[in-house]
Prior knowledge:
By secondary structure, the protein is of the alpha/beta class. Among the domains are: 9-191, 3-Layer(aba) Sandwich (Rossmann fold), CATH 3.40.50.980; 416-516, GMP Synthetase, Chain A, domain 3 (2-Layer Sandwich), CATH 3.30.300. The strands form six sheets. It has a nine-stranded mixed sheet, sandwiched between helices. The chain has a five-stranded parallel sheet with strand order 4-3-5-6-7, sandwiched between helices. α3 (37-53) packs across α4, α8 (188-200) crosses α9 (220-231) and α11 packs across α12 (298-308). It starts with 8 loop residues before the first helix and ends with a helix.
Amino acid sequence: MIPPNVFNVAAWLVDRNLEEGRGGNVAIECGEERITYGQLADRVNRVGNALRALGMRIEERVLLILLDTPEFTYSFLGAIQAGMVPVPVNTLLKPPDYEYMLNDSRARVVIVSEALLPQVQAIPRERLRYLRDVVVVGNAPAGTHSFADLIAGARPELEAEPTSCDDAAFWLYSSGSTGFPKGCVHLHHDIVVASELYGQGILGITDRDRCFSVAKLFFAYGLGNALYIPFSVGATAILWPGPPTPPNVYAVIERHRPTLFYSVPTSYVALLAHRREGRDFDLSSIRNGVSAGESLPPAVFERFKQRFGVEILDGLGSTELLHIAISNRRGAVRPGSSGQVVPGYEARILDENNQPVAAGETGSLVVRGDSTCACYWNKHEKTKQTIEGHWIHTGDKYYQDADGYFWYAGRSDDMLKVSGQWVSPVEIEAALAAHPAVREAAVIGREDAERLVKPMAFVVLEPDKHGDESTARELQDFVVSKLAPFKKPRWVEFLNELPKTATGKIQRFKLRERIRHPAD
Length: 520
């Protein structure tokens, strides 16, 4: 579908399901709650009207610090329906982070879950230059508004604001290892592109599907998994507001029986490590698993498929791209690869002179697709450095095989030059992860006595394994049995856990700091 010039994506996601006879379909399941598309439309309209009653105007921002509950969905879509711009943010942050995002976005209203309200209250109000109103989902203390009271008193009818398909619809802040996060400005049509190209084109999602995402709604990945992709066809989104521990995830799967399950490599590893006495967990309802965020090790793919009979479709996406633009397909997975380009997107691998590399050679990945964000808010130079015309620089190193499959070779700043050759830390990590004693591994570069860079591995062993010099030598020999000798980790250090971001990505910069400052 090519959206018309006058287009409001909230109406496309909600009202269209009513017009096409799906008003009685269950849109959201969350614990005991069942919300139909008819009820969803009512509550979305009420939120839009409530925001207008607070004095919000078209294009003004609404910061969402919300757990994965139905109220997130009402708030996100209600703001868009009324012509405002919701900005979902990470629920795991601290007051200084929220202070930055509130001021950077110039949000006039923040909608926050009661459990997260203390993080906002810890910010001196005089330092929040633009914020006028705090709306609380749950018990609202003095000086704030009750979300329930606001929508109960709001009208249930709301004609969608006649926005343009190229208007800003929502922002998402991209995570980074250094510097302030960047506000990615996404347009109304971006959701249509991602829904149709990936949701329908790759997953074949229909209104009979039931979607459960371990990645939370404030992530670009989770927002597609459990909100706009299911709503684009009238399917059901299964929400879980609690921590995604293996017992919780298995409990949700067995209770709600999703057909599409979205997670990240770290979570798949944790799920594999968790067992119970007696019969194994029942994942038979899942027709496909999906993975993104970082490369899925081949050994994890194989173990999950062998144990549960579920094929995981690994793919590449980003906050800037909104969702997945390169993906494996059902029945055609190449474990360890990110798959092939999703039809409707384009991808190139370039050398240092921005020229295409030959098949099999590693270079920098650039992607073109109409779901790409318009810009970074208030970061003009960074926008120009990252987005050149229709192409966005992903910051990832990749190579492509003769069949068009893309193979991740690490971040641009994580690649190692060993013996004059590029070495991917991901390749070594995958080799280590294939050893039965290894739960997870991360590899960085470390200088030897001659100041030459060699690989160093940080390894998390299975609980019944012991990390000593003998085990380290065994792992080194194991890598050499799979990879070229120069890719052998020169050093192996055992850790109880690896440092990671909220999305489960390994923070290699913290491992590098560990080497520079061992006493810390």
